[in-house]
Amino acid sequence: MSNIIEDRILDFLDGHLESHDEEELLHRLAVSPEKRGLLREHLKLREAVSGATKTEQLSVPTNVTASLYRKLAYNGYAGASLGSAVSVTRPMLQAVPAMKAAAPVAAKGYSIASMLSFAVVSFFLGIGFTSIVSQDSPTQLASNAQSVSGNTLYSAHSAPVRSLVNPRGEEPAERPYTAWQPVAYEKRQTIEVEPLLVYSGVKVASSVVDPAASVAMDHAHAFSEPQINSSFFEDKEVELVERVPIRDLSFDHFTATVPVGSSRSYVDRPSGPVDSPELEEDPTFVTASRQVTEVDPKYPSLRGDFEDDKMSPLNFHFGDYAKAPASTYISVRSGGGRLPGSDLSFSGSLSELRLSYQLSDLLVIKASFGELAPWENSAQLMGQNGDGLSLIGVKPTLNFHNVIGGELGFKIDPFIPLELSAGGLVDYETGAFYPRGSILTSLSLTRDFSILMGIEAVLYSFDVDASVESQMKYYQSKNPAVRDGLPKHSLSGFIGPTIEAAWHF
Amino acid sequence: MKHVKRLAAFFLLGLFGLNGCVSEPDETTSGRTDDILSYYMPRTTEFKYLYQYSGFFSGKRDSLFNVDYLGRTAVQPGRSIDGHWPIEQYTVSSIDGLRSVVVDLYVSDSIVVDYGTDCSTNAERFLPLKGKLRVGNHWTAANNFKATDNYNISFLATVVAHYDKMTVPTKQTYNDVWQVNYEVTGTIPTGVNPPKEYLPKARRVIYFARGIGKVYEIAFSPLSEKQWENSLVSVDRR
């Protein structure tokens, strides 16, 4: 009898009850405090589910999805399969904000130019365009989204939770990043993870109000505890809030600090219920509480994550900071260029092995060693005069300096992530000092490997006089004479492009 | 955003302002003048010069000579043959003391005249410097110079070049050096066989360093064969 009344209440709430049945039900409720209590519980339950949906804090395990599709198939549904539904749902939900975010950016000229630049670089490395071809376009994604748009259950997915939990329970690819992505900051967010409670809808509603209160829940069928993947975290990054008792089990309620836009499963969840001995029906509702907050709201994540963790350069957005792999990296840099005002088309190069350490969001300190190879106006033996006197003159000469260097970099974000660095190089054989500066932007190829590109300048005053003295001593036996009017100093170095390959650790 | 732009502007200014931190590239080491007195031997008794001749005397490869400025001696030789006065003197003597000559000298800010051993004749009259030291300047350094018996020659002097530095065979390096060439002109009488250094088209090359004077001298034959050379070894206080 109780079940009949409960069914009527549900039909009433769904608006499926006939008029006369409504009158009868309302009468029964009017005379029975117990039945009114049942109605109130259902109203609370609907309110809770509705709230969870609106706040996008709902996550759906695979078995629930599978159950739904089994039901749909039983009822004659012949649409998309489970796999396609799962794979399409996530990019669909992400494509919408991604496309919205792309619109204002596309209106800016630099965006197009920058995209083209990166496309060219991608082509150079044979990476980017293959991802363009293989990647679903936003239009396709939106189209696919339409096919499942009627499923309100799936639309309750929240982007941050999805980025942390792989609904298929599969491990992501070892190196999921296959396209250019800017890396400027290691943005992190704090997630709060509570146990999941899966129950079977209306039949357990009366018992499921507050899981943390450990009330008797005769009809609760399944509990699923999210497990932190300890291999990704340092100890300090995971903090236990409390142990939550639910029925005769205890579950961790914890917070974890993870990178924004992460594509890895930093939080794993078992593929099936951990406790479902009395499962009478397939679960259709899920309650969960997963609050996701960004540590640094200054850099919002504008781009959604895609199902296969690939991102087409066409969807690239400079304001989006994907996962910055790490703050410390070792790299190889090479650059060169010409000196303003010089007749030489190429006046120097610099190749280095570098170590960078990020002091803060804005500052990075670097050390390096390598070889500076500038064309310098060095003294040379230029032949003899008519009286047999050996003449010392000056002409551009490619010299090689073994150097160690130090730099301090400032990271700014005017429209693309930029790193402005200034410092110096010291020839550890002669002690000569060479000031340097650079403007770089960085692109992540994988989570551990990135490319930095930009403009570098090494400009200094070359001591021609010292060079002359050196040559005079060297050619002393030839009675050298120095040509008149040689400069004491000359501006040397270069300004030009530089590229740096960095391995983050 | 405003702060970011300021920071970027500051950085760019600093980066491209590096040029301002270095010396101008056309700054030269040359502090040369065209004043002949700056390039002639200081007329003071404080120093003595030591020169080394190579191949000057047959049978003796090298010879060392001291040059000592005497100034106006107690016995003034009077006016020179060309009317210059006062006449100063210096000595050239081999360090073994076997050979020594006193040379008469007249110096002004426009001319240096070396009369050899007797200023009352022009047999050995020689003008190493005259006028201004500018490349291309030339003058007659000697006329009817008695090279050997029955053979007189002339020298045409030309300022050839200036060097910021030069190293002489004695390994000494000097700054701010002028090169003056002296070319022999004349006609060889029949039956006279003068040394190659006095043959027509032969030349003498002398390098004058600022504040020091002659630091290097070379005698060439008409075929540019080096006959001998004379290098300043040291300048010592007496």
What topology emerges from the helices and strands here?
The complex is a heterodimer of chains A (505) and B (238).
Chain A lengths: L1 H13 L4 H13 L1 H22 L7 H13 L7 H25 L2 H17 L2 H7 L3 H10 L11 H6 L16 E2 L5 E6 L2 E4 L20 E5 L2 E2 L9 E9 L2 E11 L7 E2 L16 E3 L2 E5 L33 E10 L10 E11 L4 E22 L5 E9 L2 E12 L5 E10 L5 E12 L4 E15 H11 L5 E4 L5 E16 L1
Parallel strand pairs in A: 14-19
Antiparallel strand pairs in A: 1-17, 2-7, 2-10, 3-4, 3-9, 5-8, 6-7, 11-12, 11-20, 12-13, 13-14, 13-15, 15-16, 16-17, 17-18, 18-20
Chain B lengths: L1 H15 L30 E11 L2 E12 L16 E7 L5 E8 L3 E6 L9 E5 L7 E11 L2 E17 L5 E13 L17 E7 L3 E8 L5 E12 L1
Antiparallel strand pairs in B: 1-2, 1-12, 2-3, 3-4, 4-5, 5-6, 7-8, 8-9, 9-10, 10-11, 11-12
Structure description:
The complex is a heterodimer of chains A (about 500) and B (about 240). Chain A is an alpha+beta fold and about 500 residues long. Helices cover about 25% and strands about 35% of the residues of chain A. Chain A contains 10 helices and 20 strands. In chain A, helix 1 (about 1-15) packs across helix 3 (about 35-55), helix 2 crosses helix 3 and helix 5 (about 80-105) crosses helix 8. Chain A starts with a helix and ends with a strand. The relative contact order of chain A is 0.12. In chain B, strand 11 (about 215-220) and strand 12 form a beta hairpin. The interface of A and B includes residues 386, 389, 422, 465 and 485 of A.
What is the total tally of β strands of chain B? 12
The N- to C-terminal Cα distance of chain B equals 75 Å
CA-to-CA gap between the ends of chain A?
Answer: 65 Å
The helix fraction of chain A, in percent, is 25-40%
Radius of gyration of chain A: 33 Å
Q: Percent of residues of chain B in helical segments?
A: under 10%
Mass-distribution shape of chain A: rod-shaped
Oligomeric grouping of the chains: heterodimer
With helices defined by DSSP (H or I, 4 residues minimum), what is the helix count of chain B?
A: 1
Q: What portion of residues of chain A belong to β-strands?
A: 25-35%
Instruction: Tell me the major beta sheet of chain B.
Output: 12 strands, antiparallel
User: How is the biggest beta sheet of chain A arranged?
Assistant: 8 strands, antiparallel, barrel
Low-confidence runs of chain A (pLDDT<50, min 5 residues)?
A: 81-186, 197-224, 269-326
* Secondary structure tally: strands of chain A: 20
What is the residue-mean pLDDT of chain B, rounded to a whole number?
83
Helix segment tally of chain A:
10
Backbone structural class of chain A? alpha+beta
